[in-house]
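Researcher: Let's walk through a ligand-bound prediction step by step. First, I give you the protein sequence. Second, the SMILES string for NAP. Third, you return the three-dimensional complex as structure tokens. Ready?
Model: Ready.
Researcher: Here are steps one and two:
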Amino acid sequence: MKAVAQSVYGSADVLALRSLPRPVPRPREVLVEVRAAGVDPGVWVNMTGRPYASRVAFGLTRPKVAVRGRALAGVVASVGAEVTTFKPGDEVYGTCGGGSFAEFAVALPRRLAPKPVSLSFVEAAAVPISAVTALAAIRDAGLRSGDVSGRKVMVIGAAGGIGAYAVQLAVAAGASVTGVCGPGKVELVRSLGAADVIDYTTAEVDSLGAVHDVVIDTAGCRPLALLRRAMTPRGNLILAGGGHDAGGLLGGFTRQLRAPFVSPFVSQRVAGLTALERAEDLEALTPMFDEGTLKPVIDRVYPLADAPAAISYLAEGHPTGKIVVAI
Ligand SMILES: NC(=O)c1ccc[n+]([C@@H]2O[C@H](COP(=O)([O-])OP(=O)(O)OC[C@H]3O[C@@H](n4cnc5c(N)ncnc54)[C@H](OP(=O)(O)O)[C@@H]3O)[C@@H](O)[C@H]2O)c1
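Model: Step three, the predicted complex:
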């Protein structure tokens, strides 16, 4: 099969389109014929081995997994002997550990769900990591239960992969959303339902005052003190990401690590977010796509051979929604 793989860490030119053996599913695995694969900053982290602390998990001197990509949408080709929840021909979406920038990938059933019928494979591949992370942030903010009407939520990186979903999910929950994005994306963020939009090149995130009950930060690596100035005294700051390429051992993840040491000493809650890749979360999102409450925002679609260019584009740091590799 054709796959985009690497032998050493580095920039996108370490990636090459190779012919590799088709993976064989183990008894508890599913073999998926990949139709489309999502591109997200985690792919860049796996490719570069940066921040350097990520190498503890992904391989100290070179990547343990050669094929890049995690998010996928495709058709089940075969299943292992112990798999009862999927069968050949099922259309699925989810994540895999062995690389989705490939014609075939093996995945665990607990990381796959039936694809939303209303989404194409390209659209479905734009969901698994980003929308699941947005859902985790919305849940962590307490916006999935109880009366949230009147609550003000700020999403930083509102036009990005996670942010575009977070805006839509917060609006669907009944919150009033302030989206923070760069120039040229204000209208898009408004179209996703944001009541207010801050173009961060003309105003900072605290420019509306300490009015937000929740701040979900996906981008930009701003200091915690600045983020807290945008929140009410009992506000909830959720650090979903940002600044993974900030350099050093931990990149921008130092803010997430500092959060538990800051939170007990301030009136606001400051918390890092770690989203899990679970079928239950995809199943919770599926009806929202099929009912039209949520829609993927797709920036660019690249053919498999151009996956390195897709990652390079993402690494520029300003995608509008999601980038997808079509296979
Ligand atoms: N916590 C978790 O479990 C989890 C899971 C997945 C990913 N992540 C992390 O979450 C982060 C975001 O992921 P993503 O997929 O949303 O990335 P993305 O698709 O690259 O989006 C980032 C967005 O941030 C905007 N941005 C860039 N600089 C900014 C700034 N200074 N202020 C405000 N916005 C800015 C960018 O566009 P504009 O500047 O043009 O607006 C872009 O739209 C990454 O660091 C990723 O590693 C965390």
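Researcher: And what stands out?
Model: The chain has a mean pLDDT of 95. The domain at 130-272 is CATH 3.40.50.720 (Rossmann fold).
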